[in-house]
Write a sequence for this structure.
């Protein structure tokens, strides 16, 4: 069960996909991660049946649907710009697909109520899409797809147009929704953080080709190509336990522990981006509570900066500009301090 | 201050244009007293001509809607070989002299031609008949509808149509429920434009059908036979009716567009 994409190739208006092969299991949350222009939207549209592939096959629940028109596939699609119908109210937007099915009025109302409650859209039903905020539009677009109980939910950069605060809230909401309803999801994004937060498995795509597929940890630990390594850029990945004590929440990764901001508990992964760690010769004074002392164990010159690896019990990789590197007079074996904000620790 | 001079000059030049358009219209309307206008409209020949002009143009607009809207949608959505050429063809009636268009229509649709024979099989004759008026009006005014509808369809985001398909709508349902309603405003204004262009057509109509007379033909005939004083009240009437109808329609369309 689930969906299988086999050697799919298509060339369409500047975008081309070649030999795309992957499968997504029933109920799985699959994220396709790739830079802008890598063909992600084209891939989703092709799966939805909106583009005709040149070669390859799409198999849904064991059935070949490669040439099936989109309206028969029952795959939900949410675009990054939401694509709400501007001439219809929120309610009519949500009901658009169901109305075509000529359901009994009672069933219609029931399903509407269910999805409206699920996404807390009760108050907005009579509004026009044009009067809604970005987050609200996103919910309506999602409701419009979910009400049809699609076999797969296709999400095209669903958070792209939201402000960072709304984005975070929506990510959590979507994650919860997935845990509750277990829909099969294919979600494309260029955001590494989004992929981490939501993806059970990730496929990395670049220039129309899938380069690597695996669980988030695998992608980070063993990037297959340099592109993947650079794109995910996750040098500082740790496994540990979240502990809440007094009013502190921190993660214990063995040799050290540090503060984090999360509602998760138990065993998790933590990532700190290399460019969010501050390196200094003296203890750095800031609101950041976590500060560790260690020795520089390696220095690599990159194009515009240096990558410095500091051993504080575990190894942290830090990116530092060439200018700071010279100002700090760093050298192999030197004792330094590293600091970061608790909010830059990404937990998944 | 120097920058303001540009705007002052442009206001003056623009004002000249407005005066140029408004003064003949106001002068013809004001030159006939309400009493004369009332008497004119009660003449059988006049009100028949006005009525014929309005409904013939309406029919031509309706027929053009049926065939022109699909073409406009094709042009907005599909890329194909020779598309620019086809768009050029559609605009031909705007650029050729209408009296020439009338002659061309006559040579194509008179009874002894292929098209003439085909249509006479279903009882439609063009020369000297109302269908001839409709045909002539349609020929010269259909570009306005197609161009306007095409612009309207171009404004409808393709993603809306794509989403509609993923929600279970067939291409027909998508066109009917999404594309058409969203292009409504441009289509309506195209229809109004086409209708008004049809009403005012003289050259092509007079070649195909002199009698029954449309309003422009009647104005011409009165001008030729009795002079300007006879043509003026009918002209004033036609202009007043057109202005009234189009002002009302424009307001309506604006409201629809805002919804």
């Amino acid at each position: 069960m689930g969906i299988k994409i086999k050697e799919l190739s298509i060339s369409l208006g500047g975008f081309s996909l070649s030999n795309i092969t992957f499968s997504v299991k029933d109920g799985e949350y699959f994220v396709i991660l790739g830079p802008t222009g890598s063909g992600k939207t084209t891939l989703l549209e092709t799966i939805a049946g909106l583009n005709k592939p040149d070669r390859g096959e799409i198999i849904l629940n064991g059935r070949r649907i490669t040439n099936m028109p989109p309206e028969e596939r029952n795959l939900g699609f949410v675009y990054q710009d939401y694509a709400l119908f501007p001439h219809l109210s929120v309610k009519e937007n949500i009901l658009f697909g169901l109305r075509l099915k000529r359901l009994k009025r009672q069933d219609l109302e029931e399903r509407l109520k269910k999805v409206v409650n699920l996404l807390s859209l009760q108050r907005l039903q009579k509004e026009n899409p044009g009067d809604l905020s970005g987050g609200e539009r996103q919910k309506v677009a999602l409701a419009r797809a979910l009400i049809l109980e699609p076999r797969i939910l296709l999400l095209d950069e669903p958070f792209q147009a939201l402000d960072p605060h709304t984005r975070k809230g929506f990510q959590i909401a979507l994650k919860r929704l997935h845990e509750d309803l277990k829909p099969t999801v294919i979600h494309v994004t260029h955001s590494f953080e989004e992929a981490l937060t939501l993806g059970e498995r990730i496929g990395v795509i670049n220039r129309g080709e899938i380069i690597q597929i695996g669980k988030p940890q695998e992608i980070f630990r063993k990037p297959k190509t340099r592109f993947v390594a650079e794109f995910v850029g996750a040098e500082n990945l740790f496994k540990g336990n979240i502990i809440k004590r007094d009013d502190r929440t921190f993660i214990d990764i063995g040799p050290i522990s540090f503060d984090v901001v999360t509602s998760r508990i138990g065993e998790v992964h933590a990532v700190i981006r290399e460019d969010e760690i501050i390196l200094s010769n003296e203890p750095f004074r800031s609101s950041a509570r976590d500060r560790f002392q260690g020795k520089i164990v390696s220095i690599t010159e990159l194009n515009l900066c240096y990558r410095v690896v500091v051993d504080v019990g575990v190894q942290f990789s830090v990116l530092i500009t060439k200018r700071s590197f010279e100002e700090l007079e760093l050298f192999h074996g030197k004792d330094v301090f590293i600091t970061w904000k608790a909010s830059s620790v990404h937990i998944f | 201050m120097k920058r303001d001079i540009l705007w002052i000059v442009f206001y003056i030049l623009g004002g000249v244009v407005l005066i140029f358009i408004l003064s003949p219209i106001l002068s013809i309307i004001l030159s006939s007293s309400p009493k004369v206008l009332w008497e004119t409209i009660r003449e059988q020949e006049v009100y028949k001509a006005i009525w014929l002009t309005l409904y013939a143009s309406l029919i031509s607009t309706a027929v053009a809607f049926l065939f022109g809207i699909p073409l406009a949608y094709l042009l907005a959505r599909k890329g194909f070989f020779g598309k620019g050429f086809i768009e050029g063809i559609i605009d031909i009636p705007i650029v050729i002299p209408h009296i020439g268009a009338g002659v061309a229509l006559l040579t194509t649709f008179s009874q002894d031609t292929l098209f003439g024979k085909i249509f006479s099989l279903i009882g439609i004759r063009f020369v000297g008949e109302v269908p001839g008026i409709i045909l002539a009006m349609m020929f010269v005014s259909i570009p306005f509808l197609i161009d306007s509808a095409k612009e309207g369809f171009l404004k409808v985001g393709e993603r809306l149509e794509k989403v509609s398909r993923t929600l279970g709508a067939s291409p027909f349902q998508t066109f009917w429920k999404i594309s058409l309603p969203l292009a409504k405003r441009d289509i309506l204004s195209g229809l109004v434009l086409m209708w008004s262009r049809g009403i005012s057509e003289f050259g092509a109509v007079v070649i195909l059908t002199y009698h029954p007379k449309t309003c422009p033909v009647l104005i011409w005939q009165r001008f030729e036979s009795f002079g300007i004083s006879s043509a003026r009240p009918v002209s004033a009437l036609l202009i007043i009716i057109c202005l009234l109808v189009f002002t009302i329609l424009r307001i309506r369309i604006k409201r629809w567009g805002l919804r």
User: Anything to note?
Assistant: The two ends of chain A are 27 Å apart (CA to CA). Chain A has ten helices and 20 strands. Chain A touches chain B through 27 residues (CB under 8 Å). The mean pLDDT of chain A is 88.
